[in-house]
UniProtKB/TrEMBL annotation:
SUBUNIT field: Component of the 7-subunit TFIIH core complex composed of XPB/SSL2, XPD/RAD3, SSL1, TFB1, TFB2, TFB4 and TFB5, which is active in NER. The core complex associates with the 3-subunit CTD-kinase module TFIIK composed of CCL1, KIN28 and TFB3 to form the 10-subunit holoenzyme (holo-TFIIH) active in transcription.
Organism: Neolentinus lepideus HHB14362 ss-1
Superkingdom of origin: Eukaryota
Family under the similarity heading: Belongs to the TFB4 family.
Function as written in the Swiss-Prot or TrEMBL entry: Component of the general transcription and DNA repair factor IIH (TFIIH) core complex, which is involved in general and transcription-coupled nucleotide excision repair (NER) of damaged DNA and, when complexed to TFIIK, in RNA transcription by RNA polymerase II. In NER, TFIIH acts by opening DNA around the lesion to allow the excision of the damaged oligonucleotide and its replacement by a new DNA fragment. In transcription, TFIIH has an essential role in transcription initiation.
Protein name (database record): General transcription and DNA repair factor IIH subunit TFB4
Record has Transcription regulation as a keyword: yes
Ranges annotated as biased composition (Low complexity): 307-323
Keyword Transmembrane helix assigned: no
GO MF annotation list: zinc ion binding
Length: 323
C-alpha cells in the first residue's frame, strides 16, 4: 500500500454527445463545463493522495486522440508564474488540461459531419505510456526508478459518453488483451448514453469496475468513492461490480453487434451468416458444411403433406468446419 499509483484518465470529448448531455429535458443534465470542473477536482485528489503518484490525461476527440497532460513531461512545468494562493501542482494540471482541450476543440470544423470518436487511439496511447513507465529503457533510467517495489501501480480510467462503435471491436479487444498482459486495470465510468458492450467487457476482463451514473449530478462523489482508491486498497474495499455483463461481439463482415454468430475454425473470425470463404484467412469451407449451417438457421421441423419431417444435416469434414 506504500507504493505509488499511476492513473491514466481517458476523457471522451465528443461535442455532439456533450451537447445532448446538457439538454434540460434530461433527468440530470450535465454540461461539459461542470463535468470538466469535477474531473479536475478528482485529478487533484489523486495527486494529493501521495506525493509519488503520477498522472496522465488523454483526450478522445472526433477522429483523433491527444495527450493532454503528463506528470513525467517537464514541459508542463514551464508555465507562467501562476497564483501563489494555489498549490502549484494543482494549477499546472488544471491549466494544462483546460488549455489543450480548448486548442483541440477550436480545430474542429462545425460545418463537417462529426467523425467517430478516437477512444481506441486514446486507450492505446494510455497503454503505451504505462508500458514506458513500468518498463523503462536505458534512455529513461535516469528519471524512472527500476525497482519493482516502488514502480507505480498502473490503471486506466475511461470517462465515456459516446455509444459503441462496432467498427472498433477488434482494436478494443486487442487493447484489452494488451492490458491483461501488462496487468493494467481498466475502470469505466459511463457518464451519459446507453451502456457500452465493449467497455463492459474491458472492465470485466481486466478486473476493473464499470459504473453507470444514474445521478450525474454526483459525478465527483462516484469518482472519489469508486475510482480514487489504488488497486492495493481495493482489496480492503467493496468495489462496485457488474451484475450482468454483455459478452456480445461484432461480426467481421458487417461490423454489427450480433447475438449469434459463426466462427471460423482457423482464425476465429466472427460472421453473422455462414460464408463460403473466410475474409480474414481465406479458408474455404465445404459446401455440405454451409448447407448444414444454413439449415440450422431455419426451423428444424417443416410440414410435408400434413406431416412433420426432420431433415438430418450432413456430417461435415472436421478440419475446416466453422465452430
Amino acid at each position: 500500500m506504500d507504493k505509488s499509483s499511476h492513473i491514466s484518465v481517458v476523457l471522451d470529448l465528443s461535442p455532439s454527445q456533450w451537447h445532448l448531455s446538457s439538454l434540460p429535458h434530461n433527468p440530470y443534465p450535465l454540461s461539459f463545463k461542470s463535468f470538466l470542473s469535477q474531473v479536475l477536482a478528482f485529478l487533484n485528489l489523486h495527486i494529493a493522495s501521495k506525493h509519488e503518484n503520477t498522472l496522465a490525461v488523454f483526450g478522445a476527440f472526433p477522429g483523433k486522440s491527444v495527450m493532454l497532460y503528463s506528470s513525467s513531461n517537464p514541459a508542463s512545468d514551464s508555465s507562467d508564474s501562476g497564483n501563489p494562493n494555489i498549490y502549484r501542482p494543482f494549477e499546472i494540471v488544471d491549466s494544462r488540461v483546460v488549455t489543450r482541450i480548448e486548442e483541440e476543440l477550436e480545430l474542429i470544423d462545425d460545418k463537417e459531419e462529426e467523425a467517430p470518436i478516437g477512444l481506441v487511439g486514446a486507450l492505446t496511447k494510455a497503454l503505451c505510456y504505462i508500458n514506458r513507465i513500468t518498463h523503462p529503457t536505458t534512455s529513461t533510467q535516469s528519471t524512472i526508478v527500476e525497482d519493482p517495489a516502488i514502480l507505480p501501480d498502473p490503471r486506466i480510467l475511461i470517462l465515456s459518453v459516446s455509444p459503441d462503435l462496432s467498427t472498433s471491436y477488434i482494436p478494443i479487444m486487442n487493447s484489452i488483451f494488451s492490458a491483461q498482459k501488462l496487468k493494467v486495470i481498466i475502470d469505466v465510468c459511463k457518464v451519459y448514453g446507453p451502456n457500452t458492450v465493449f467497455l463492459e467487457q474491458a472492465a470485466h476482463l481486466t478486473g476493473g469496475s464499470y459504473v453507470y451514473l444514474e445521478r450525474r449530478d454526483a459525478l465527483l462523489q462516484h469518482l472519489v468513492m469508486s475510482h480514487l482508491p489504488s488497486p492495493a486498497l481495493r482489496k480492503l474495499m467493496a468495489v462496485p461490480t457488474q451484475e450482468k455483463i454483455d459478452f456480445r461481439a461484432a461480426c467481421f463482415c458487417h461490423k454489427n453487434i450480433i447475438d449469434v454468430g459463426f466462427v471460423c475454425s482457423v482464425c476465429l473470425s466472427i460472421f453473422c451468416a455462414p460464408v463460403p470463404v473466410c475474409s480474414t484467412c481465406r479458408t474455404k469451407f465445404p459446401i455440405k458444411t454451409l448447407q448444414r449451417l444454413n439449415a440450422s438457421r431455419a426451423p428444424a421441423l417443416r410440414p410435408v403433406n400434413g406431416a412433420a419431417k426432420t431433415s438430418a444435416p450432413s456430417t461435415p469434414s472436421l478440419p475446416s468446419t466453422p465452430r
